[in-house]
Amino acid sequence: MTLLQSGITKSLAEDYTIDQSLRFNNPDGAYLTRTPTSDGNRKTWTFSAWVKLGKMGTIWSLFSAGADGGGPRTNLTIHADGNLEHTFNPSGSDNLDWRTSAHYRDPSAWYHVVIAMDTTQSVATDRQKIYVNGEQITDFEAQETIPEDSEGPVNQNVAQDIANYSAAHGSCATF
Asked: Which DSSP symbol is given to 125?
């Protein structure tokens, strides 16, 4: 595991880069992608990333999995207003949205974002947990029930992308 260096030894006013981080800039069209060679556990998975937003006022994609236009799909985005939203679509036709009431809009801050999925849980609110900076989010504008034992596209033999969205701006450091 790579730990992020926070620039503690440097002056806060000084510009610095964080080792092992990547910057995604919309005009460049750069993103990361991986397609597993075979299916794995599609009911239980975790996504974790350190994120620093760039240009605000647009949708910023953190993570997505699945094919556009059909089949299971999941997206983790920060919207133009700063809400964090996880859209889970296990069937390919019905989006199940979890959208935070909190707004994340500080372009100078690093946010640690975690999505923990476990659709085998019998309690509906335990099937998905979202954390920002170590605190579990419990206040949502939208919080649709994810069916027990749903299988999504994460760990499926389909594309799994970081920052693959036409309006992506900012920096994302992952480990």
From this structure: G
Residue 87, domain member (yes or no): yes
Q: How much is the CA Rg of the chain, to the nearest whole Å?
A: 16
Structural domain span for residue 135? 42-174
SS3 of residue 151 by DSSP: coil
In sequence order, what are the residues at sequence separation of 6 or more whose Cβ sits closer than 8 angstroms to the Cβ of residue 97? 85, 86, 87, 88, 142, 143, 144
Backbone CA torsion sign across 23, 4, 60, 103: negative
What is the Cα–Cα distance from 23 to 3, expressed in whole angstroms?
17
Domain-embedded: residue 46: yes
Average pLDDT over residues 103-124: 92
Exposed/middle/buried for 25, CB within 10 Å: 0-12, 13-18, 19+?
middle
Does pLDDT of 11 surpass 90?
Answer: no
CATH number of residue 114's parent domain: 2.60.120.200
Burial of 132 (0-12, 13-18, 19+ CB in 10 A): middle
Residue 35 belongs to some domain of the structure: no
Question: Number of folded domains in the chain?
Answer: 1
In a domain, 114, yes or no: yes
Mean pLDDT of the chain: 82
**83-113 residue pLDDT tens:** 999 999 887 777 899 999 999 988 888 899 9
